[in-house]
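Technical note accompanying the year-one report. For the benefit of new consortium partners, we illustrate the data format agreed upon in the data management plan: each record pairs a sequence with a structure-token string. No post-processing was applied to the example shown here.
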Amino acid sequence: MGQANVIRLLIQETPLSESQLETGQTNAPVRKVETASHGQRKQRRAGLFVPAIPWLELTAALSRLSTSRAAALWLMLTLQSKLEGGGWLKPRLSLLQEAGLADRKTRSRAISELERAGLVDVERRKGKAPLVRLRTLAAPD
């Protein structure tokens, strides 16, 4: 069993009036204490961070695509790339299903559209999922 946190409170000698309690204007010393559960919550929240996509990069990519599925795939791949540090990616099935790309043919068409638009490089492997690498984009003219 875990160890309980102990928080010691200082008791003020003089009683506080109702107005002091209502407004929070007390002269008692205040100190913020970080408990173990607070630290764990901060750590979990840090894992939920979704990196931002620069506006110019986003508009450059979306202006080259004609379908919403390809746009969703590009956004998912960008997210995965930023989380994993770039390089060749094997698109995560859970992310693809959230984007509506659970069907293999739909996914293949969306990857082909990204490739034709010049947004990704694709390495197709027989009997395995394709590897995808995002290309860096310039702002549209």
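Partners are asked to follow this layout when depositing records. The chain has a mean pLDDT of 80.
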